[in-house]
């Protein structure tokens, strides 16, 4: 009994932090595969934690860091594995907390000029690189020059600051495509995804672009409706000056634009609802960073 208890206490705790938009987390990328591979280890030495994150499509620091600290429970012997936005959450966490080791997949250090990344709160202040590096025994970092969401220069900068063991792999994109990577890295803690990378990246860009276009069109409609109101008001004033009664009103353009506005609002709600349901490949939608199944991502 005592021997079994000691064995349980010695199990290596590993927490996987996914990217932005990765829900349900076990349907996204390589997370469930890694969990299963580690738990199949014949020695039973690994205890793997993989859970859906709060605010999955925003991946905000104010939501993710407290969740990792208070809900997922880690200590100085824990290993953290982060992908995309999960990397930034881990780095902010390590500015104050200690762990045994860290694996970062597709990390960055700026918001890349993206308003959604900027809203995630990780990039509103300088990084404390010395604290991050000092709070873990080792850091292994993966990135690919073919990553369309996070330029490789971002990862190289992070690697230089953290003095990580940096591995740059060709043709891996944002580490969301299965195939040769799994075969080449099967013995590693990390492999690639069970999700189609191109579907995710293209759908993520289309979704954000559609939201931007909808907001722009809505502003234009509001402007046009305002102009029509002014024209109608002037016409009414002219008619009153001429003291001619009027029995008709010029409301057809406004009615049309108002109807169009309502239609666009419905389209925008549909886009938002789709994002809220999660970004899996089956829905043609994670993330990750950057993502952003994200922030990943």
How many distinct helices?
10
Shape: elongated
Q: How confident is the prediction overall: mean pLDDT?
A: 75
Distance between the ends: 43 Å
Number of strands: 6
Seen as an oligomer or otherwise, the chain set is single chain
What do these coordinates show?
InterPro entries: AB_hydrolase_fold (IPR029058), RBBP9/YdeN (IPR010662). With 297 residues, the protein is an alpha/beta fold. It has 10 helices and 6 strands; from the N terminus they run H-E-H-E-H-E-H-E-H-H-E-H-E-H-H-H. The protein has helices spanning 2-9, 31-39, 61-72, 85-94, 115-118, 129-134, 152-162, 180-184, 197-241, 252-276; strands at 12-17, 46-49, 79-83, 99-105, 136-143, 165-168. The protein has a 6-stranded parallel β-sheet with strand order 2-1-3-4-5-6, with helices on both faces. Helix 3 crosses helix 4 (85-94) and helix 9 packs antiparallel against helix 10 (252-276). Residues 179-184, 189-200, 246-252, 263-272 and 274-297 have low confidence and may be disordered.
Describe how the helices and strands are arranged:
Layout: H1 2-9, E1 12-17, H2 31-39, E2 46-49, H3 61-72, E3 79-83, H4 85-94, E4 99-105, H5 115-118, H6 129-134, E5 136-143, H7 152-162, E6 165-168, H8 180-184, H9 197-241, H10 252-276
Parallel strand pairs: 1-2, 1-3, 3-4, 4-5, 5-6
